[in-house]
Write a structure and sequence with these properties.
heterodimer, A: 324 residues, mainly alpha, Formate dehydrogenase/DMSO reductase fold, 10 helices, globular, B: 305 residues, alpha+beta, Alpha-Beta Plaits, two-stranded antiparallel ribbon, 24% helix, 15% strand
């Protein structure tokens, strides 16, 4: 018996269920085996580190030493801790160096290994140089290197997720890099807003706000364009995480504006709270997108229905262009 | 690297870097219209490749307790009992082998089906498709997955570090990580047997020649003849799946003759290799990285505070 019917557990849908057949309701593609919290946390740390490297370079050029130190530390720590999570996620962690055996442009994971490795080296060298005062010129050059690899680090993970058969990730491949980049920017700005002295956090606030706007906007555009495929962003556990992320990021934006209204203690507290909200929003967003992918893989409806629509459209086009 | 990533590809091995003297592309044609659901293929595969057991579960999915392909299941026989909603116009002719049937002797002489009145059985032995454009191969970051000289796709277990990227990349849901082991495993098309000119274990064991092994070009011709033959007999539902080089994966090295829609068997109706969109994916990543850089620069313009 091949059962008809679709998913949509829990929440009520306002549109009728789509009819499709499946093999006993079993999923067609495999669920990603990537571990949680390792991979979602790596997404957050990579984005935060990439954004922080940019922040640090700007701070160095504009002579904001406290901001520069916090941002350099965040970049180095993000890359380092992120690498630990990545190695731990492997099925055979002792073979992690096999990632550097080949360079394959068709594999975002391969390309990413060759982004993360130099970024980590540069970010650590830059931070180490700034903290110890040794090799200041090499340190500055490393900082530039980290800033060059930073935006790729923050966005390549979108290619990693999109370059799979998971419908919600693959079909969203146009907007996902902007979601990840924006979220990385807001996370980087947020960390600096929490840890750096308020007098030097102006650029961090601006970066966090811009990143938040990009992130929220891109998620909205993506969800609308994907239609039924984007259901996991609205329903179930992943839907709740996405909603929480949206709320936290929006709260961060609101608190930032509040924190920019004066110079007193209250505005400083608001700014720190805003930074924390941005960071929490970025973390929650990564978990939401990760969980949404798992849900998208598990329900055969997201694989079967769009593919059948595609087939039908091709058939219709073929019939329309057939002679006579 | 002048590799094509999508679309028809005549010489898969040449494209992968083998010189012109490579053997012809080998594959499977699984004709599900003659599958009897004996599961000899599952057993033979596990025995030859020493694949560990992956659980003894009664699934309630007809005779299918294997449930799906996976790291420790490289041949999976699917069973679907479809109710017949209308009588068959032109019944399939069956040969009386003198075997026991349902009911008392002589009770079922004429009749479209032998005792299964009202039910149409769909049985199919699923396997790794060894795609022309294999997403698992494209995304493997260690180079563990590679294209053999026979045009098949094989994992090297001594290199695989279990990153798991191949798992969600496969549009058919074939490859998976073995939990206790950590690495990825899948059908090798009995690479070791191919090297000594032997037939893969499943094809060797199949008693009805539902699983046919040979040169892919010859198998495709044979399949076309078989489909036409079935259509002449009135089996209009028969169709080939994975035989078309114009499809989303460039055609499969292991393709099928199905008697219903692919999704009924748990197969994707219109699989596409994810690598097809990789150009667009990287372009958007580049644009996002540039935007992030612009954001970073813009954040420092204007007042310091």
């Amino acid at each position: 018996m091949s059962p008809k019917g679709g998913g949509g557990r829990g929440d009520r849908l306002m549109v009728p269920e789509v009819e499709f057949e499946s093999y006993y309701g079993k999923q067609i593609i495999k669920t990603p085996t990537w571990k949680t919290p390792d991979v979602p946390l790596y997404l957050f740390l990579g984005g935060m580190a990439g954004g922080s490297a940019l922040l640090a370079e700007g701070a160095a050029l504009q002579d904001l030493p406290a901001l520069e130190k916090v941002a350099r530390g965040a970049a180095a720590a993000g890359a380092g801790i992120g690498t630990v999570f990545l190695v731990h996620d492997l099925g055979r962690p002792e073979r992690f160096l096999n990632m550097l055996r080949v360079f394959k442009p068709t594999s975002p994971l391969s390309v990413g290994s060759f982004i993360l490795a130099p970024f980590s080296a540069f970010a650590t060298a830059a931070f180490g140089s700034q903290v110890t005062g040794w090799f200041p010129r090499l340190g500055r050059l490393s900082g530039v290197g980290a800033a060059a690899f930073g935006p790729p680090l923050a966005t390549y993970t979108a290619a990693l997720f999109a370059n799979t058969a998971v419908p919600i990730w693959h079909e969203g491949h146009r907007e996902l890099p902007f979601v990840f980049g924006g979220s990385g920017a807001s996370a980087a700005g947020g960390v600096a807003m929490v840890l750096a002295p308020a007098a030097q956090t102006g650029p961090a606030v601006r970066m966090a706000l811009a990143g938040a706007a990009l992130d929220l906007g891109a998620v909205e555009v993506m969800s609308r364009r994907l239609g039924m495929i984007a259901e996991p962003y609205e329903q179930g556990r992943s839907g709740r995480l996405m909603k929480a992320a949206r709320a936290l990021t929006t709260a961060g934006a609101g608190l930032s504006l509040l924190g920019s209204l004066g110079k007193g203690r209250r505005s400083r507290v608001a700014r720190v709270a805003a930074g924390a909200a941005f960071v929490a929003g970025s973390v929650t967003l990564r978990f939401g997108i990760f969980e949404a992918g798992l849900a998208s893989a598990r329900d055969p409806k997201y694989t079967v229905v769009p593919q059948k629509e595609r087939l039908a459209a091709r058939e219709a086009a073929r019939a329309a262009s057939a002679p006579g | 690297m002048a590799n094509s990533l999508w679309g028809p590809l005549d010489d898969v091995q040449g494209d992968a870097g083998y010189d012109a003297a490579h053997p012809p592309r080998m594959g499977f044609f699984t004709d599900t219209s003659v599958c009897i659901g004996c599961k000899a293929c599952e057993v033979a595969c596990k025995e030859w490749n020493q694949v560990p057991d992956d659980g003894y579960e009664l699934s309630g999915m007809s005779y299918d307790n294997t449930q799906a392909l996976g790291a420790s299941t490289w041949r999976h026989v699917a069973f679907v009992e479809k109710p017949l909603d209308k009588p068959v116009d032109k019944p399939l002719t069956t040969t009386d082998l003198g075997l026991p049937g349902m009911g008392p002797p002589g009770a079922m002489e004429s009749g479209a089906t032998d005792g299964d009145a009202g039910v149409r059985w769909l049985m199919s032995s699923d396997v790794c498709k060894h795609c022309t454009h294999a997403a698992c191969l494209d995304v493997c970051p260690t180079g563990s997955l590679f294209r053999t000289e026979f045009g098949t796709v094989v994992v090297q277990p001594d290199i695989c570090n279990g990153c798991g990227y191949c798992v969600p990349a496969c549009p058919y849901g074939v490859i998976d990580l073995r939990k206790e082991d950590g690495r990825a495993f899948k059908c090798t098309l009995c690479y070791d047997r191919l090297k000594v000119d032997e037939t893969p274990a499943c094809a060797k064991a199949c008693p009805t020649e539902s699983i046919q092994f040979g040169e892919l070009s010859e198998l495709r011709e044979r399949a076309q003849v078989r489909v036409e033959q079935l259509h002449e007999q009135g089996v209009d539902v028969a169709r080939l799946y994975g035989a078309d080089p114009e499809d989303g994966v460039g055609g499969d090295g292991a393709f099928f003759l199905l008697l219903d829609e692919p999704e009924v068997y748990g197969l994707p109706p219109d699989p596409v290799v994810t690598t097809r969109d990789l150009g667009s994916i990287w372009k958007h990543v580049g644009a996002a990285a540039a935007t992030l850089t612009g954001l970073g620069v813009a954040s420092f313009l204007g007042r310091r505070r």
